[in-house]
């Protein structure tokens, strides 16, 4: 099943203040050597210089036949990463992605972003023992992507669809009357949120600032709080059969979103991304992200789009040119009361509304913690060399 993609658990030994100084780049080079030729989803790999604070300059390259990693005596590659050793350790441990590091100002990239992201994919393929996935094989295995379901359909068919496609559309889960009550609650709750309150998102439109996301909405809507405990929603997590739980989201069990027309600044309709785009894919994927259609959504009204099967292919977690992947782009038009479910590792986006605004609730189910002894032992074997390796030596270049 491609719903539980985890290969790691968090370390149990506590923080290691010197972990960044023990990155074994020679071992990383050996792991790169097992990858073979990168697939078409990775473009032409030009040399990348890693300028690591405390560890010096290193160059990783691909000459069409093999990878090489060696000290960069004269770092002058067109693309460079400037990064602290501890941050590089976090990157190699999949605690964060380049996007997450750049967002927080901890990674400075010069040159083409496509090169930076393609090299990150290459490192992930090596360090997670993932290898290269074949988009053509995934595309050939996709189900009928025009199909949708109801709660009366065979759960095995629903889960098989979700497993293979990375999303599923369930029709008519809630009634229009139930959604009308929640829509009215959204209007009543909106004045209780304010910019800078730490529990709401705002965006700027041509007519002024607009509230676009209300966190912890169940505290403002009895109907929404009741929905969270409704068997119709719980059925989603239970049906997968992997123990997904709805607990553990203290303070923000469910969010209510307004999707206004004409956003010119701020985050409302997020472009193509995976929910693991900031990091921790190998620790947490796949969660189930559930979108409850308070209003319908279609072309011009903010419908969700997904790249079918993208959870099964190693691709950029954001900023992606989705045409490059070679997997179908599917628009999910919904009616009032429909439910969409997508995996946290499925590329998706919401179209900016142009004809009418949209309202939607989002909540999620998470996989249960990996806390048994066998899982911990397996995870220790898979933890990156950033934590477990010998001290870095710079005397000999490594080529594979």
Calculate the mean pLDDT score and round it.
85
- Spatial ordering of strands, largest sheet: 6-14-11-16-9-8-7-10
Distance between the termini: 33 Å
Total E-strand runs: 17
- The SSE order reads HEEEEHHEHHHEHEEHHEEHEEEEEEHHE
In which range does the helix fraction lie? Answer: 25-40%
Low-confidence stretches: 373-400
Oligomer: single chain
Number of distinct helices: 12
User: Based on helices, strands and strand pairing, what is the structural class?
Assistant: alpha+beta
- Write down the Rg: 22 Å
> What spatial form do the alpha-carbon principal axes imply?
globular
Give the DSSP E fraction (strand runs of 2 or more residues).
15-25%
Biggest sheet, open or closed, and with what strands and sense? 8 strands, antiparallel
What does this structure look like?
This protein has 400 residues and is of the alpha+beta class. 26% of the residues lie in helices and 21% in strands. The protein contains 12 helices and 17 strands. A hairpin with a 4-residue loop joins β2 (56-62) and β3. It is globular, with a radius of gyration of 22 Å. Mean pLDDT is 85; it is low at 373-400.
């Amino acid at each position: 099943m491609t719903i539980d993609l985890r290969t790691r658990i968090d370390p149990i030994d506590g923080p290691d203040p010197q972990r960044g100084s023990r990155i074994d780049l020679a071992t990383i080079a050996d792991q790169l050597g097992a990858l073979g030729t990168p697939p078409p989803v990775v473009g032409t790999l030009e040399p990348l210089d890693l300028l690591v604070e405390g560890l010096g300059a290193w160059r990783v390259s691909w000459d069409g036949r093999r990878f090489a990693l060696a000290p960069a005596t004269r770092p002058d590659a067109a693309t460079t990463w400037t990064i602290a050793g501890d941050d590089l350790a976090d990157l190699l441990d999949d605690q964060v992605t380049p996007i997450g590091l750049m967002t927080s100002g901890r990674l400075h990239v010069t040159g083409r972003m496509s090169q930076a992201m393609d090299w990150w994919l290459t490192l992930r393929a090596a360090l997670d023992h993932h290898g290269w996935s074949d988009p053509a094989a995934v595309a050939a295995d996709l189900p009928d992507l025009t199909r949708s379901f109801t709660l009366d359909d065979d759960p095995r068919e629903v889960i098989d669809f979700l497993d293979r496609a990375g999303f599923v559309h369930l029709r008519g889960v809630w009634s229009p009357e139930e959604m009308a009550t929640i829509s009215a609650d959204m209007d009543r709750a909106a004045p209780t949120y304010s910019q800078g309150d730490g529990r709401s998102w705002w965006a700027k439109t041509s007519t002024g600032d607009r509230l676009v996301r209300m966190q912890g909405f169940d505290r403002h809507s009895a109907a929404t709080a009741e929905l969270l405990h409704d068997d119709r929603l719980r059925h989603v997590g239970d049906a997968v059969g992997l123990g997904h739980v709805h607990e553990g989201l203290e303070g923000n069990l469910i969010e209510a979103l307004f999707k206004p027309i004409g956003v010119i600044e701020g985050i409302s309709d997020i472009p193509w991304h995976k929910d693991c785009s900031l990091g921790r894919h190998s620790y947490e994927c796949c969660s189930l992200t559930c979108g409850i259609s308070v209003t319908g959504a279609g072309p011009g009204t903010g419908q969700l789009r997904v790249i079918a099967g993208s959870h099964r292919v190693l691709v950029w977690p954001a900023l992606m040119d989705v045409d490059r992947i070679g997997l179908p782009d599917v628009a999910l038009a919904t009616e009032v009361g429909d439910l969409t479910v997508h995996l946290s590792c499925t590329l998706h986006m919401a179209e900016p509304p142009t004809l009418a605004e949209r309202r939607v609730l989002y909540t999620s189910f998470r996989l249960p913690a990996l806390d048994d002894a066998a899982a911990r032992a397996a995870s220790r074997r898979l933890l990156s060399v950033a934590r477990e390796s010998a001290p870095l030596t710079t005397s000999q270049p490594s080529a594979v």
